[in-house]
Design a protein that fits this description.
The complex is a heterodimer. Chain A is an alpha+beta fold. Chain A has 18 helices and 23 strands. Among the domains of chain A are: 184-210, no CATH class; 219-555, DD-peptidase/beta-lactamase superfamily (Beta-lactamase). Chain B has 2 helices and 2 strands. Chain B is elongated. Chain B starts with a helix and ends in a 30-residue tail after the last strand. Classes of the chains: A alpha+beta, B mainly alpha.
C-alpha cells in the first residue's frame, strides 16, 4: 500500500521535474535556436566594440636632435548624463575644479546623450581632483596633447595644432601628413563596465605613430636671435620685427623669428598681431638694402667699376618735376663709397648706366619675382611689376629699393647670393623625416642652386659691403672678433598711396665672416620710434646675433 | 550499469563544461591583469615622458638665460682666444712630459701586482679635531 503511494508520488515528482525541464529546454531552444540571430545581434552590440586607436603625433627636433615639440598624455573629462542624478550639484562641483562656467557644465549634463565632453585635455591636478570625487557618470579618457618645452621658441616656424592634434599653422600644418600618423583599430569584447577584454580581441590593427621631423633650426641660435630681436622690439617701441639667419651654402634656416610672438602651449590666448609669420607672410619696400641687387648687377654687367666716380649732387638731384634726395649731402664719390654711404643719387646714376632691362633681369635672377619655395605655409612673393609696367620714373626709384617689394626671406636669399659665391639657394626648414625608431624615411636634399653673379663680382661686393660695416652706414654692425659685410635700409612705409614721413621699416642684411661666410642674416624692424634708421635699430641686432652665433658655432 | 554510465556521462559533461567556464573566467581575469599591467606601464611611460619634458624645459636656453639674469649673472659665449682645445692631453711624469694614454694617469697592467701587499701604501685618515 505504502509502496504504491510512494511510487505514485515518485512518478508525480519525476513527471513534474521532466515537464519543468522540458519547458526550460524548450525555452532555451527558442531563445538559442529560434531567436538566435535576434539575441546574438543584441549581445554583440552590447559586448563587442570597434574602437579606433589614435596614433601618437610625431616629435619635432631641431638640427641637433633637441626636442621642440612632443606629445604628452593628458586626461579629458566626459560625462554620461543619463546616469547622473543630481545634475545641479555635479555641475557645481565639477565646474569649480575645471575652472569653467557652472551653467555650461549643467547644460552639458542635461543633454539626453550617453556621452558628452565636459572639458578636454585638463591638467593632471584637475583630473586627479575630478577622479577623487568618484561621481557616477563622470569619467576620464586619456588623450595626447601637443606640448612645446621651449614655449615661445620658434613659434612661427613650428605652428600650432587643434584640439584633435591636427596641424593648423607652420610646420605642424605643412608636414601634417608625416606628423599625424595613421590610426589603428581593435574589435574586442567589453565587460559590463565597458572595459575592453584583451583576451577577447577579434581584430587588432596597431596605430602607426607619426613620423618625426628634424629641422634645420638650431635651438641655441634661435634662442639668441629671439633674445636680441625682443630687445630691439621693446627698446624701439616697434610694431613688429623679424629676423632670419640662414646658412648661405645650403639654404638651411638656422633661426627664424618674429615679434610679437606667443607661447605655443597657450596659443588660444595669443594676440592677433602675434599670429603672423611676418618674415614670409609680409612684403614691404626694402629701401636701401635693395642696393645690393643694383650694385651686384651694375658690377656684373661691367656698367660701373668700384672706383668709378659719380656726382651725388650735394644731396638733391632734380629729374623733371621730381627731386631725388640723399639722407646726407655728398659730392663726388666712387661707386664703393656710394654704396658705403648709401647714396640714392649715386646708386640711381649707376643703375642708369646699366639700363632697365638689365635691372629687371637681375631682379628676376635674385628671386624678387617668385616665392623662395620654403617649406612653410603661406609664403608670399613681393608684388613687383614686370618691366612692361614700369613707368618713366621707375629707374629712379627701383635701384634704391622703392617701387619694389620683398619679403624678409627673399632678402635673405638675395644676401645669400653674395655670401654663397654668387649662387641663389632654396631655403629649407626641414632636413629629414624619421620614423619613431630614428630611421630616416625621407630626406630633403639641398637644391642645386642657380648662379646669379660671378665669383669676381661676389668678391667685389663682399669688399663693398664690408666697407659699409667698417666705415659706412652699418658701423653698428661691426664686431671685434669677426669681419662682416652688410647693408642698412630705412624704408618709408606707404600710406594711402603716399610715402609716410613718420612710419619706417629699419632693416639690415648682411653676412659673416667676410672671407668665408657661414651666416646670411636679415633683420627688419617695423615702425621703430623715436629712432628708426636701419643702421641704428637693426644693425646692432645683427652684430649681437652674429657675434654670439659665430662664437657658438666655433665651439661646436 | 546503465545508471552508472549515465552518471559517468553527466559527470564527464559537467566537468568539461566546468573546465570551459573556468577557462573563460581565467581569460577574463587575464584580461584584467593585462589591463592593470598595461596601465602601470603607461603610467610609468607617461611619467618618464613628463620628466624628460620637464628636463628639456629646464634646459631651454631662454629659460636658463632668464634664470641667470634674474640673479644678475650675465653669460656670454667665450671669445676666440678664450678657449684652448688640446688635441691630446699630457701629464708630467718622472721622465718628463708623457701622453696621458701611454702612462701617467692611466692604470697599467702589472703582472707582479699580486705582490703589492708587501709594499707600504699611502692611506688617507680622517683628520682629528
Amino acid at each position: 500500500m505504502h509502496s504504491g503511494i510512494l511510487r505514485k508520488r515518485q512518478l508525480a515528482v519525476f513527471v513534474f521535474f521532466i515537464l519543468s525541464l522540458s519547458i526550460l529546454v524548450l525555452r532555451l531552444l527558442y531563445l538559442q535556436v529560434v531567436k538566435h540571430d535576434f539575441y546574438k545581434k543584441i549581445a554583440d552590440e552590447q559586448h563587442t566594440v570597434s574602437l579606433e586607436i589614435a596614433p601618437k603625433r610625431g616629435t619635432i627636433f631641431d638640427r641637433n636632435m633637441r626636442v621642440l615639440a612632443i606629445n604628452l598624455h593628458s586626461d579629458s573629462i566626459f560625462a554620461n548624463p543619463r546616469v547622473i542624478k543630481d545634475k545641479q550639484k555635479v555641475a557645481a562641483s565639477i565646474s569649480k575644479i575645471l575652472g569653467i562656467g557652472e551653467d555650461f557644465v549643467y547644460s552639458r549634463l542635461t543633454k539626453n546623450k550617453s556621452f558628452v565632453w565636459i572639458k578636454r585635455k585638463v591638467s593632471p591636478e584637475a583630473s586627479a581632483l575630478v577622479k577623487a570625487l568618484k561621481i557616477e557618470g563622470i569619467d576620464t579618457i586619456q588623450e595626447s596633447e601637443r606640448s612645446y618645452p621651449d614655449k615661445t621658441l620658434a613659434c612661427h616656424v613650428i605652428g600650432t595644432v587643434d584640439i584633435d592634434n591636427k596641424g593648423l599653422e607652420g610646420l605642424e600644418l605643412y608636414y601634417d601628413k608625416y606628423l599625424k600618423g595613421e590610426p589603428g583599430w581593435v574589435v574586442s569584447t567589453q565587460d559590463a563596465k565597458r572595459k575592453l577584454l584583451e583576451s577577447y580581441q577579434y581584430e587588432y590593427i596597431p596605430a602607426r605613430d607619426g613620423f618625426n621631423l628634424v629641422l634645420t633650426i638650431d635651438e641655441v641660435i634661435q634662442s639668441i636671435a629671439e633674445r636680441e630681436l625682443a630687445k630691439a622690439f621693446e627698446k624701439f617701441n616697434a610694431k613688429g620685427a623679424s629676423i632670419i639667419i640662414m646658412d648661405p651654402r645650403t639654404g638651411d634656416i638656422l633661426a627664424l623669428a618674429n615679434m610679437p610672438n606667443y607661447d605655443l602651449n597657450n596659443a588660444k590666448n595669443r594676440s592677433k598681431e602675434s599670429i603672423k609669420n611676418r618674415a614670409i607672410n609680409d612684403f614691404f619696400e626694402p629701401g636701401s638694402v635693395f642696393k645690393i641687387v643694383t650694385a651686384s648687377a651694375a658690377l656684373e654687367e661691367k656698367a660701373v667699376g668700384l672706383n668709378d666716380k659719380f656726382d651725388c649732387e650735394n644731396g638733391a638731384w632734380r629729374i623733371g618735376r621730381r627731386v631725388l634726395h640723399d639722407h646726407t649731402p655728398h659730392g663726388i664719390m666712387t661707386f664703393k663709397e656710394i654704396i658705403g654711404k648709401s647714396s640714392n643719387i649715386g646708386t640711381v646714376k649707376a643703375a642708369l648706366r646699366m639700363g632697365q632691362e638689365k635691372m629687371y633681369k637681375y631682379m628676376k635672377l635674385f628671386g624678387f619675382y617668385e616665392k623662395t619655395g620654403i617649406d612653410l605655409p603661406g609664403e608670399v612673393a613681393g608684388m613687383n611689376r614686370s618691366i612692361k609696367g614700369w613707368s618713366k620714373v621707375s629707374m629712379y626709384a627701383i635701384p634704391m629699393g622703392q617701387e619694389v617689394t620683398a619679403t624678409a626671406l627673399q632678402l635673405a636669399c638675395a644676401i645669400g647670393v653674395i655670401a654663397d659665391n654668387g649662387y641663389r639657394v632654396r631655403p629649407r626648414v626641414v632636413k629629414q623625416v624619421t620614423d619613431p625608431a630614428g630611421k630616416v624615411i625621407k630626406e630633403f636634399p639641398v637644391k642645386v642652386p642657380n648662379r646669379v653673379i660671378s665669383t669676381d663680382t661676389v668678391l667685389k661686393m663682399r669688399g663693398v659691403l664690408n666697407g659699409v660695416v667698417n666705415s659706412g652706414t652699418g658701423k653698428k654692425a661691426k664686431m671685434e672678433d669677426y669681419e662682416a659685410g652688410g647693408k642698412t635700409g630705412t624704408a618709408q612705409k606707404v600710406e594711402q598711396g603716399r610715402y609716410s614721413s613718420d612710419r619706417f621699416i629699419g632693416s639690415f642684411i648682411g653676412f659673416a665672416p667676410v672671407e668665408n661666410p657661414v651666416l646670411a642674416v636679415v633683420v627688419s624692424v617695423d615702425e621703430p620710434h623715436p629712432v628708426y634708421f636701419g643702421g641704428d635699430v637693426a644693425a646692432p641686432v645683427f652684430r649681437n646675433v652674429v657675434n654670439d652665433t659665430l662664437r657658438y658655432l666655433s665651439r661646436k | 550499469m546503465r545508471l552508472f554510465r549515465s552518471i559517468l556521462t553527466i559527470a564527464v559533461f559537467t566537468v568539461a563544461s566546468l573546465m570551459y567556464v573556468h577557462q573563460q573566467v581565467e581569460l577574463v581575469k587575464l584580461s584584467y591583469l593585462i589591463e592593470k599591467k598595461e596601465k602601470c606601464l603607461n603610467v610609468v611611460l607617461d611619467q618618464r615622458e613628463q620628466l624628460s619634458y620637464n628636463i628639456k624645459n629646464l634646459e631651454s636656453p631662454s629659460r636658463l638665460e632668464s634664470a641667470l639674469l634674474a640673479k644678475n649673472i650675465d653669460i656670454t659665449f667665450p671669445r676666440k682666444g678664450d678657449v684652448i682645445t688640446m688635441v691630446r692631453p699630457y701629464v708630467m711624469n718622472q721622465r718628463g712630459i708623457s701622453d696621458i694614454r701611454s702612462g701617467g694617469l692611466e692604470k697599467r697592467f702589472n703582472i707582479f701586482g699580486f705582490l703589492d701587499f708587501l709594499t707600504p701604501k699611502a692611506e688617507a685618515h680622517q683628520a682629528k679635531g
